[in-house]
Request: fold
Amino acid sequence: MKLRILREKPLKGKVKISGAKNSALPAISASILTDKEVILKNVPRVKDVETMLEIIGIIGGDWRWDGELLSIRVKDVKNVRIPYELVSKMRASILFLGSLVARAGRAEVPHPGGCDIGPRPVDLHVEGLRALGVEIEQEQGFYIARANKIKGNRFRFPKKSVTGTENLLMASVASDEEVEISNCALEPEVQDLAFLLKKMGADIEGIGEERMIVKGKIPLSGAVHSIIPDRIEAGTYMVIGAIPENDFLIEGVEIKHILNIIEKLKECGFDVIKGDGWVKVKSTERILPVNIETAPFPGFPTDMQAQFTALLTQAEGCSVIRDTIFPFRFHHAYELQRMGAKIDVGEGIAKVYGKTELSGTDVSANDLRASASLVIAGLIAKGETIIHNIHHLERGYEDIIGKLRNLGVEIEKIEGGID
Reply:
């Protein structure tokens, strides 16, 4: 399948932000930690969530949907081996390593897949789990984890890791001893997982800080938890709102989670109006060039650099974008060049020269955020844009076609493409 986009008029109206994919995925994995029902609200219906639920079913769990409400119960773990064909679809599947070994004492998880944005080793996950007494070996592309008991210990991450912190949190709640985790990732999604685990009965101190202390409390109970709004989806629509002449409201946001994006848009010369759970970007005729350097939260998110790359083709001057998290994450720049963008790409850096006129053409995405970047470019461009490989887009943006159509975009899926 491919996506056809044509913007013939300014976008108007309002758009509601869905629950955070990167919060829902670890929450689904955490549901394994109890034999009671876990009810998650505000869960986005995206491909990655569907894949996680397939894995839950293979493990032995049941689930049901009721709108954006998802109920999961893993009464008994019947299988600890996760098929490669599911894990190859997304990186978050590695989160089952910590939760499954905590619940069942064993986990067999293939090396994770996901977006092609450069190497993302799981060494930090392995080191952390080994510090808790988990034996881990690699056999034919699988991580085989075994533990008779999760031991208390202190572990400091050599560098921040979001999924690494999440994996260690989920394993730690199975220990009857104290676990101290240092240099934790501070991302809102990590905090959201910790709050869910607390609702399930875990004793966790230091949520939102670089040092967390977990005092295990097994068995955990069920819980009801609402997934936080997706800050990257919010940021994506904020960038779309910044395109000249667009004028729409973005609802259902958590302002404190998107302050880094708001500040960068202000540097570009945009007026950003915010209220209780909503934000609006007022477009400007003259966009200023900016320098961007990605960093762990609360720094500028790597998941937003592709979207800003597209926007900055319209800035008057040279913008420099450095991705310190995933330095090879610039495939979208070459596709933007096909549309007329002037971008020089080096290792970990892209220089965007504007202002350039973009023209609609056929382009192809190789990862989730690159897909969003090309959608934004298609909304800037004159003429029709065709995006191939749209399965990437469907992994992380709930009903993006419906949401853009409601704002006035001429957009549709069409058969064929190079998926």
